[in-house]
Amino acid sequence: MTISTESYSAVAGQAREATERSVEAWKNGAKTFTDQLDQATIPSLDLTEPVARYFDYLQQAIDFNRDLATRWAEMVTALTGSVRDQTTNVTNVVKDQVDSVADLTVRQAEKAEQAAKEQAEQAEEAEKAQAREAKRVEREEAKKAQQEAEEAEEAEKARAREAKRVEREEAKKAHEQAREAYEGLTKAELSDQLADRGLPKTGNVDELIERLVNADSE
């Protein structure tokens, strides 16, 4: 518990007042004694012993007030030293608190810097991971698009082949139907029709029919 300067002053004042009251009491006692000596009718007695006792009392009072004043001064000195010690202690405490606050501030700043660095590294790593994922998705989409294009091309080729096959089938069917019109004719009849169209008449029956069918398709 810290004693305030006002408390020191109050204690010192009480000690000083006690000393002053003691001196005042001694002065009043001395005055009363001398007044009684003046008023009393002094008989023919030996005053050596009373006067010796009086000065003994006076010496005791002086010693008492000296001791009291010395103690008061020592107390004031001690209190002053206490104030100085308290001030030193307060100064040390304040200095320690300032150092503690400064150290805490430095540590907090270092923690904040480390946290910011870690967050930046995490953000950078997340960005890299996102870029890698984007490239992977891009490659997958490109591969898928290429595969779809190849499949579409293959499907188109298959449709073209099928169309040609159908076309050939239809052409063959049409050709066969065209031949049916001439297959019942003789070679002489076929030769006459070829002659009418200005076509050669040489060849067997199948060749003559084929020549007439081809001429019909032109």
Characterization of the model:
The chain is mainly α. It has a domain at 181-218. It has helices at 5-39, 48-180, 187-196, 205-217. The protein is rod-shaped, with a radius of gyration of 70 Å. The model has no long low-confidence stretch (mean pLDDT 75).
Helix and strand arrangement:
Elements: H1 5-39, H2 48-180, H3 187-196, H4 205-217
Task: Report the count of strand segments.
Answer: 0
How does the major sheet shape up? none
* Helix fraction by DSSP (H/I, runs of at least 4): over 70%
- Report mean pLDDT, rounded to a whole number: 75
CA radius of gyration = 70 Å
In angstroms, what separates the terminal alpha carbons?
A: 129 Å
Which terms summarize this structure?
about 220 residues; mainly alpha; 4 helices
Short description:
The protein has helices at 5-39, 48-180, 187-196, 205-217.
